[in-house]
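[job 0412] stage=fold_complex status=start
inputs:
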Amino acid sequence: MTGLPAILRQAEPTPGIGRLLPIRIGRLGLGLISLTLFLAAWHLATTYRLDLHIRFVNVPTPDSVLRRALIAFNDPRFIEHIAMSLQRIMAGFTLAGLVAIPLGITMGRFLTLRWLVSPVIEVLRPIPAIAWVPMSIMLWPSNEESIVFITFLGAFFPILINTLHGVNAIDPALIRASRSLGAGEAALFRHVFLPGALPHIFTGLTVGMGVAWVSLIAAEMISGQFGIGYFTWEAYALVQYPDIVLGMVLIGVLGLLSSGLIRLAGHLVMPWQPRQGAKREALR
Amino acid sequence: MTAIPTQRSLTVTRGRIDIQRLNIRFGDHAAVEDFSLTVTPGEFVCLLGPSGCGKSTVLNSVAGFIPPSQGRVAVDDAVVTRPGPERGMVFQQHSLFPWKTVLENVAFGPRMQGRPRAEANDLAREYLELVGLGPSADRYPATLSGGMQQRVGIARALVNHPSVLLMDEPFGALDAQTRSIMQESLLRLWGQIGNTVLFVTHDIDEALFLADRVVVMSAAPGRVLLDLRLDLPRPRPEDVFASPDFADYKRQCLKLIRQESRRAFDFLDGAGI
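[job 0412] stage=fold_complex status=done
writing structure:
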């Protein structure tokens, strides 16, 4: 963050003190307007039961969803669905990070390992997580494990590929500098490869979290008991239309929160990195 | 514990560089051919030559990054086989760890030598003061100017008490004013510490301003064309550029370098490039 105002001043043709604040307020205002318009359109379309080839006849209104939500959040069974999904996401995502980050760094460092592992990865990578569902059910003894495995797969490949890119993007001068300062192989990993790859790793984590949610919901819809995906699918089967929307909104909000958490963690772990938003403002 | 020698000792005993019949080939390309050079302890030697002449290759070989194809490189009678902190290296640019603060960058070497954190930090602070960057200890490299970054680079190399300081066009990316300030402060620093310096540059003025000895290299494959001992006063006055001796040395170097650059270009023309 240090030195940022100077960058801003240089980039802005019209100098202005506190120029950043109006930008923030403006951005927030536009965001609110956008959400309000969306809700209004939804409200109108469902209240007047529009039928414009796309049919809003059966789509629940926003306030019916809200009413359902108030009831649902007081229902321990619903809370358990959420807890289940969060638990699966945590398990799958954490495992993916624990395996993919070290593997990616080692693959980036040792060409032999990379050439050995890459072909398998490249073949498996394009397979969408949902196509893994039957195989996963065969592989794992319990339903729970197979869902976590599918979530793991969703997160694994983006994290691995980005970590690998991150290691490749490290300036060789830094490796030589640290070796001439007496760093051995272990210190090189800890002080150069890991921090050097971190920006890419966090890109991978953000993308991986998104794909993990996609995979989790798909897996829950097909093979689950409990979980938000299961809840949403079950609502359709039981003709509980407001619950469908409630499930969808919840998935959206949880996905947003989890990638926000990762971004926050990124700022905490990489204090040397200028913030994304600040960069963008400076580039105007 | 005072880490920095306060007075330049009259007899520097460490820091002899012995390069004997060094040959370095990259595949079919001969980068350095039959290059021999002996640098005595405490000497400031500039390797000067047209771009692509292999001067950085020689330096990297002394640093231990590039193994000789033939010949021998030794520092203080120990054959160089790998990089090490006793041969401090200052790179052209962007070699500081962006994720470490200035202090952590400088303390990295002592930490790698197994010193406890507090001790390494104290040492680092001392050397940051020496290069005039004490107040910037907690900043990240990205927030420093190019000249400040290079000063951190120098402190990071010196903090390990290297017997030899290897500098690979360290001021090449800086603007003219900053460069001359950096050259002066490097000489001041060297006057205090007095270790051997092997400095690579393609800038004749820089070489003549800094060095005791200027070694002019041929176009690739790099050989020694001229080994020039400068008889210029120390400490170098700022107006040394205006002295007749300086002009004379410059003429000698310029003639050789022009010749070599042209030879390199003719070679490229001949290759149909």
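[job 0412] summary: Chain A has two domains: 1-59, 61-273.
[job 0412] exit 0
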